[in-house]
What does this fold into?
Amino acid sequence: MADIKYYDVILKPVVTEKSMDGYADKKYTFLVHTESTKSQIKEAVEKMFEGAKVKKVNTMNLDGKNKRRGAVTGKTAKTKKAIVWLTEDSKDIEIFSGL
It folds into this structure.
């Protein structure tokens, strides 16, 4: 397993209608490094966003989609999504506040 630092774990936030419904419940969705663990994701969120306290983390591995260009077939890169639940007394994550 690769040595992953906390700033390499979270790649970008997922901003969709379904993920935005969870903001009121302090539930945030991120694309994360494919080799990161739940404890690494929890540590990264708490270090990167000041005042955030993670209650639990759910992860899902997504396989790459089959793509075709003419006779050549291939796959897109596989990804990993993490849904992070914050505690009730935790501060909100500021990058989502204006959405």
The CA atoms of residues 20 and 33 lie 21 Å apart. The first strand starts at residue 10 and ends at 13.
